[in-house]
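Sanity check

After download, print the first record. It should look like this:
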Amino acid sequence: MREYVVLAVGLGAILGLAAVAGGTAGTSGLQPGESLPAFQVIDVTGPNKEKSSLCYI
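Expected structure tokens:
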């Protein structure tokens, strides 16, 4: 009998967590229409190695 109670509690916990996790809408990264913010570029190879004043435009 004890095994059934433990199984039922475990199954209920898993289903409850799945319902909570499934109900949230996760977003990652840039969304459509958003622009990329400026960021600092550091070259790690070649003639401009470790110079911080680079422009790749």
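If your output differs, re-run the checksum step. Summary of this record's structure: The longest helix spans residues 2-22.
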